[in-house]
Amino acid sequence: MSGETTPIVGGATQSWITLAAMIIVGALALVSLYMGFQAYGNEEIEIAFMYMIIGTSGFIAIGYAFFRPKPTSMDPLKPKKFDVITTLECPQCNLKRVRAFQRGDYIYKNDEPCTRCEGKMIITSIHTRKEEKKK
Amino acid sequence: MSLLQPDNEIGMILQTLFSFAFIVYLFYAQRIQAMTMLRQIETTLRKIKVLRDEGKTTAIETINEIGKPERDPTPMVERFMEHFMIEPMSMDPAGVVGKLGSILNVREFTFEKEVEVMAPNAEPSERNNIENLLEASLALNIFYKVIRHYYLLGKKTMNIYIIMQIHMILPLILQQIEAYSSALTAFKDGMPIGDGVGAIVAAKLLNGAETREVAKEMVAGEIEYEGRRVIITKARGPGGSVGKPGDAVTNLLNENKGNVTMLITVDAAGKLEGEQVGDIAEGVGAAIGGPGVEKYKIEQAATEHNIPMYAVAIKQGIEHVVAPLVEPLFEATDKAVSSVKGLILDYSKEGDTVVVAGIGNTVGVAQ
Which domain range does residue B221 map to? Predict the structure, then answer.
């Protein structure tokens, strides 16, 4: 398919350029802030204000670069995996069994023989396992 | 030390840089914004490409595993993924539902034939699952191609309005794409999905009662509940199919010559943000999604026989619709069964006949 050969430029390969730019901007912002404080010490308020704006703008730019969407390589690229369980019940002795889903399982299927009595177990539910809440 | 003093070199450099940045931003702000948006679209496009390729690989692997074809199904799968449907002309809307229905029937027939050739040794229910799997792969391919189109067009023209169009709806599209990628797992193994809650409710109401075919891929059975005759219809499982509920309801109402007190449809419904997954809501009308042909048939038949329509909706997010069934949704089917029974008791009397239609994809659910 044509989509497989179409190059998509940019992305993760540009990250080192961004990093270098961030270091330069950070250094300039630091110098600017230093000079701002020095000017403030010399009671040159207007000049100090100007330097501090430049310094703060530099740090805001760095902050933006950090919090913007991350490159694709950091994103989970694979489709989600699901932990699906099958519940079997014996209509005769009410024995209940839960096991991992297997291909071919379906709700109301007469499945494996009951381990307690002579009956056949029926699949009564198939669903994903409840996710445990993160503490 | 002063910024304005010419002997201060660092001050001069900083001031020049700041002024330069200001001028650059003045003229190139929109371009910078466009480039940022393009980068975000590109990031998403990479992810979609991976999912699209995964869909294709999963489809080929499943066909090889289940269908045991004599030749490599890859070219057939690739051809299938490019399949399209042209909707009928609606400038003259009279009869447009019939035309759409006819086109959908041809599409369905074509897909069945394609899968039959691809997987000759698969069981009919497995073929249905493969068909659904291929449709999910096809949807992922279309999403990928459309987003790529806007990305490349935006990049070529650097027109911020073209880029913004796709950028604004990207989070919503991504939700749908992730849902389709979850569908790959479900259809590959024939697991029940979120959309199947209506079929599960119908199966629970049938509770093993004998069924017969009432329309294409639709079965119906009868139970007696509190002196009422309840006819329940659903798509024939356990293969992945939504059947033709419109035809089934029409046939059932015609069979009973309109002597039906009420018609209840049960289906999955999209939840609003803030609503809980598995919430049940009752209402009136025909609870059925899709292109609208089956809904039209149900409404037409009910209106013709003057039968009130009631609806039970089971709420779920877009990410649940085609993904493997989650526990809250399975638990909600019991509540929906109680809701249907409540409606029957409230709006019919002993000796009445009630029709209940469980709408949705019956993958992984027998009757």
Answer: 194-358
> CA A9 to CA A23: how far, in whole Å?
24
Q: What tokens does B2 get?
A: 């002063």
Q: From CA B76, how far away is CA B79, in angstroms rounded? A: 5
Contact B183, A87 (CB under 8 A): no
Q: CA nearest B338: which of B283, B287, B280?
A: B280
ω into residue B245 within 30 of 0, thus cis? no
B363 domain-assigned: no
Residue B20 CB partners (closer than 8 Å, separation 6+): none
- Mind listing the pLDDT tens digit for each residue in B145-169? 999 999 999 999 999 999 999 999 9
B4 domain residue, yes or no: no
Rounded to the nearest angstrom, the minimum Cα separation between B211 and chain A is 14
ipTM: 0.85
B109-135 per-position pLDDT tens digit:
999 999 999 999 999 989 999 999 999
Which of A28, A126, A129 would best serve as a mutation to test chain B binding (most B beta carbons within 10 A)?
A126
Pair B363, B268: CB distance under 8 Å:
no
Nearest residue on chain B to A2, alpha-carbon basis = B145
Give the CA diameter of chain A.
Answer: 96
Q: Which two tokens stand for residue A116?
A: 């307690």
CA distance A6 to B318: 30
Query: Cα distance from A11 to chain B (closest Cα, Å)?
Result: 7
What's the domain count of chain B?
2
